[in-house]
Write a structure and sequence with these properties.
This protein has about 325 residues and is an alpha+beta fold. It has three domains: about 170 residues, Transferase(Phosphotransferase) domain 1 (Transferase(Phosphotransferase), domain 1); about 80 residues, no CATH class; about 55 residues, no CATH class. The strands form four sheets. The chain has a five-stranded mixed beta sheet with strand order 2-3-4-5-6. A three-stranded antiparallel beta sheet has the order 7-9-8, with helices on one face. The protein is globular. GO terms for molecular function: ATP binding; protein kinase activity. InterPro entries: Kinase-like_dom_sf, Prot_kinase_dom, Ser_Thr_protein_kinase. This is Kinase-like protein.
Length: about 325
């Protein structure tokens, strides 16, 4: 799965930045990003988004026949691209549109499927795997329970038994649920409460710990596919641990370009590198991006900008390896 060709990276300069300047930048930019969600009605009334090669499908609002549908595709310098980056609005509302580059056409809406009302077609019968797990007397104060959905997740969790980098599966409940130790914070939550005085230090530490966790998964032949800040737990008193080992689909903003089609075989170790760039973005701006285009438009400031841009390179072969990525973070020096 790992490409034998290593990307050529510039020599690593020592990067320095102070917490005050960095915090002022991210607070200001985060507020701008929040305002983007309210600037155009399309995003405020958003119902669902699907990624397409070169663009996206959007369902928004409501009508007698369901949400309105907009298909958007186009490269930089086009109306479509500006819409996806939240620099422009759709030309008209309360109708279904196809916006290809600068060309706008009325179209028939594509049916909207409310996933909350559907049964996931990929769900599997995990009873055989569950039967082999030890029975745990669940204490809600100490344990977190989760319904089993995919056999692969259970196999991956068992393969990672004993690892400090991965959430540990303890066994099953009386109802056949998966049982884990309860960790009260996720990285998503910790990023929200990051302090100005130690902001860069904490982000650097979190990302180095996340890299160690991903390196362990890759050593086991596991590609996570959905590394986001909410899928990384923060025990606070010990290093971060990775959870949600379904290793099936990916959240839209951490999904790299090569997976915009439906060929899931293209997932590789480089896919997780792209996702680590998205995790870095979440740690910096303590929020989830509106979409991948907005995430790439608003790169984190130095000392993390070059790292983010390297991780989110369009071509997977141009992204750094985990050892290269770790060296980039270790080179960061924080000014007092």
């Amino acid at each position: 799965m790992e490409s034998s060709k290593q990307p050529e990276l510039d020599p690593l300069p020592v990067s320095s930045w102070d917490n005050k300047s960095f915090s002022e930048y991210v607070h200001r930019t985060r507020e701008e990003l929040v305002q983007l969600r309210m600037k155009f009605s399309l995003w405020g009334a958003l119902r669902d988004v699907a990624i397409l090669p070169g663009g996206m499908e959007v369902w928004y609002g409501d009508s007698a026949n369901g949400p309105y549908y907009v298909k958007i595709s186009g490269g930089p310098g086009t109306l479509a691209f500006d819409i996806m980056c939240c620099r422009a609005d759709i030309p008209r509302y309360n109708c279904s549109l196809a916006i290809s580059g600068d060309v706008v056409q009325d179209i028939e809406p594509r049916p909207f499927i409310d996933l909350d009302d559907c049964v996931d077609p990929d769900l599997e019968d995990c009873s055989e795997e569950i039967a082999k797990l030890p029975l745990i007397d669940v204490d809600p104060e100490k344990h977190f329970i989760k319904n089993p959905t995919y056999r692969q997740e259970i196999r991956n969790l068992l393969q990672c038994q004993g690892s400090r980098f991965v959430v540990q599966l303890l066994g099953k409940s009386m109802a056949g649920e998966l049982v884990f130790d309860r960790v009260k914070s996720t990285l998503e939550h910790s990023a929200i409460f990051n302090s100005n005085n130690g902001r860069i230090q904490n982000i650097k530490r979190w990302m180095l710990e996340a890299i160690d966790g991903v390196a362990y998964l890759h050593s086991q032949g596991i590609v996570h596919r959905d590394l986001t800040a909410k899928n990384i737990l923060d025990p606070v008193s010990s290093p971060l641990v990775i959870c949600d080992l379904q290793c099936l689909n990916s959240t839209f903003f951490c999904r790299p370009f090569e997976h915009d089609g439906s060929d899931l075989r293209k997932f590789s170790y480089a896919s997780d590198i792209f996702a680590l760039g998205a995790v870095l973005w979440q740690c910096c701006f303590y929020n989830a991006p509106l979409n991948r285009y907005v995430m790439l438009e608003y790169a984190p400031p130095p000392p993390f900008r070059r790292i983010f841009q390297a991780c989110t390179a369009v071509c997977p072969e141009e992204r750094p390896t985990l050892p290269q990525l770790k060296a980039m973070y270790e080179a960061i020096v924080i000014e007092n």
